[in-house]
Amino acid sequence: MHSRRALLYMPGDDWKKITKSITLGVDCICMDMEDGVAINHKAEARATIAKALQELDFGKSEKLARINSIGSGFEKEDIEAVLPFHPDGIVIPKLEDVKQIQWASENIESAELRHNWPVNSVRILVIVETARGILNLKEIASHPRLDAIIFGGEDYAASVGATRTKDAVELLYAREAVVAACAAFELQAIDIVAIDFKDIEAVRVESEFGAQLGFSGKQIIHPAQVVPAQEAFTPSDEAIAYAKRIVETFEAAQKSGAGAYALDGKMIDMPLVRNAQKVLDRAKAAGKM
Ligand code: COA
Ligand code: MG
Hints:
Blueprint: E1 6-11, H1 15-21, E2 28-32, H2 42-55, E3 62-66, H3 75-82, E4 89-92, H4 98-115, E5 123-128, H5 131-135, H6 137-141, E6 146-151, H7 153-160, H8 172-184, E7 188-191, H9 200-213, E8 217-220, H10 226-232, H11 237-255, E9 261-263, E10 266-268, H12 270-285
Parallel strand pairs: 1-2, 1-8, 2-3, 3-4, 4-5, 5-6, 6-7, 7-8
Antiparallel strand pairs: 9-10
Magnesium ion (MG) binds at residues 35, 93, 127, 129, 152, 155.
């Protein structure tokens, strides 16, 4: 699966921002046709994204296109405009029901067959950002073409009538629900946007807290957010060294017949080893091992 520590959005009708995004070393570039684009610029966004997919070299960055929500009336033209140019994935916002993924999946599969691309080479990421979406997470997460669930904090707050605060306590239940659904189906979990993009310390703190909750990455909206977000979702050298020690000492303890043992005055047993393994998996995904 592609590493998605940071997923950078830009309005799909903004050629300048798209060309800038490919210079930033960001894991994931998401060209938007939805809420970042004015209603009277949807056609321009479709054409601009199609041109970018054809003409630009995205290097190691993943290229994604966000369509309008299923039922908006825009979604069919959106997906048809970009699919012929093989984006790496389609992002579906305001996802509430697994049937909506099925609609996109059928469109994608017929494009794959038509163009002789490998089946499943265009992935789907969904944004769950309504109360209904949270209630239906279990079915949503089970779809085989899905790579990741993204949690949309601002839309979710609007959906339930919550007041957004800086530490986002009002979003905690929904964020944790997304993390759990993703873990159950081996998907990536991608956290909320920090909209105050000038405040780099705030992005760093929010990214680190998201990583603590179990998210694997974060949505971002500005070039200045790339480094703090990607760093927060990359295990530190110390965390990697400690995880390696846990795995090694655990193997030795198992051989000597001990399930639990002490390391630096702390009890180590199976759950800590599993967690250490997750840290090493993340380090590998981030290219650090
Ligand atoms: N992707 C790529 N480049 C971006 C960018 C983005 N999301 N946001 C800003 N930039 C570029 C600017 O074009 C500018 O480039 P330049 O130095 O070559 O002229 C540079 O980064 C600095 O931008 P800055 O002046 O600080 O911001 P701005 O006022 O131009 O834009 C926003 C502020 C919020 C409008 C802009 O960041 C943006 O459009 N973000 C994404 C919004 C979006 O997609 N929303 C929907 C999903 S939540
Ligand atoms: Mg949204």
